[in-house]
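Hi again,

Forgot to attach this to my earlier email, sorry! This is the prediction with iron/sulfur cluster bound. I've pasted everything inline since the attachment limit keeps bouncing my files.
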Amino acid sequence: MKDFKSVRPIIDEKRPGLYIETYGCQMNVNDSEVILSILEGQGYALCEDMDRADIIVINTCAIRDNAEQRIWGRLDVFRQLKKKHPVTVCIVGCMAERLKDKLLEHPAVDIVAGPDSYRELPALIRNLSEAGNGKQINVILSSEETYADISPVRMDKNGVSAYISIMRGCNNVCSYCVVPYTRGVERSRDYRSILREAEELAANGYKEINLLGQNVDSYLWKGDGQTINFAALLKMAAELLPEIRFRFSTSHPKDISNEVLDTMAAYDNICKHIHLPVQSGSSRMLELMRRKYDREWYLERIRKIREIMPECAITTDIIAGFCTETEEDHRDTLSLMEEVGFDGAFMFQYSERPGTLAARHYQDDVPEETKTRRLNEIIQLQNRISLERNRKEIGKRMSVLIEGVSKRSESELFGRASSNKVCVFPANGYKTGEYAEVEVTGCTSATLIAKTL
Ligand code: SAH
Ligand code: SF4
Ligand code: F3S
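Structure tokens for the complex follow:
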């Protein structure tokens, strides 16, 4: 395997310009960094202005219909742009994988590439420029591709926090979810390449690494007589780079093991935050969703987390208005939220995705207004709970990794505590990338306000 190279983008006006837009989850952000690395190797340089671009890559999400609607809107913008100057438009990612050649019908689109075909992008671009070859497509999914040997070129602004994808795809079949169809089967990346990439990030000044996968708890790498699970990977990473702070997402309630919790507790440089999507508080809904756990199992996992790490923050994802959801099921979700006291949540209204189990076997029968009303109740409740949870932080001292200058004021900085909570405080000589020791003095439902010590 080759050495990991420079991790920042090349900005060079003399090179052909590459403009990248990314939608969807953190994994897509990291994939765009892989694409940038591949295309830099072809001579392209990142440009931030699409009017200057020779090639536009739009990395898409298919998780909900509104995610796709945004992309269609962007394609219309690129269509207008193409009237002004010639530019190649590549649509990549999950929506590309889902819709395949249907996307080629859009006049703006030249190339369609799925999440496992990014190594083919240079060939697709070449074929396109060869006369008469027409539009290009590669949406073949792989059971092996992990881009392990490609060093992502980091596009974050601050150089403090970076992502490493430790696995790709998903082997679960949650009935509402399109991801297994757009990302293919689950595969774990060689742990040695993960650790090498982490070392390289540390050498380049990064302070925090976020290990990514749809279900990190099922990370499992086998080879050379070794079997490495997620707890073992976390332990090796934490020991190899004690000065780096590690985070990970997403955890799955059915798979998060006590071994992972014990490993988190044992290392100060593993952040005390778990993102544990519950989706619903009703066991009947969880069964229909094929989540493979029920309400009691989820609450037991929460109890275990709190027993092993009383200070650990817990966040979640919730879907409102899944097929056949009754008022009682909805109240079960609200009561579970109260019972757990989540520090934060991403909350969505159910959106039927063609081809999924739910689309094929259940009726999307909760009226739109009911979905919206339930979602609003969930959001309102979570805002109240988040505020209560944040108020409990007042008076506590914590170490905050500084990510940049606060949007509110030039003289204030912001960063994240181990809990992943955003914290704002007076700069007092601190700089981005440093740790500030602070005491929390106030809060909103979204932010902690602090003073430096
Ligand atoms: N792998 C993660 C989640 C990935 S998708 C997990 O298993 O938890 C992120 C979130 O989007 C999901 O947790 C779910 O809450 C939401 N989501 C997925 N499909 C959806 C759909 N069809 N409609 C609404 N929300 C959806
Ligand atoms: Fe989708 Fe379920 Fe896989 Fe998460 S675990 S990506 S929700 S199928
Ligand atoms: Fe969206 Fe694909 Fe991520 S559907 S949420 S970009 S895995």
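The chain has a mean pLDDT of 96. The CA atoms of residues 124 and 130 lie 10 Å apart.

That should be everything now.

G.
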